[in-house]
Amino acid sequence: MRDNVKGGALTEVTFYILLSLYAPKHGYAVMQFIEEKTDGRLSLGAGTLYGALNSLQEKGWIACCGDNKGRKKEYLITSQGKEVAKKEMERLKELVFIASGIVGGTT
Question: What pLDDT is recorded for position 98?
Answer without folding.
Answer: 94
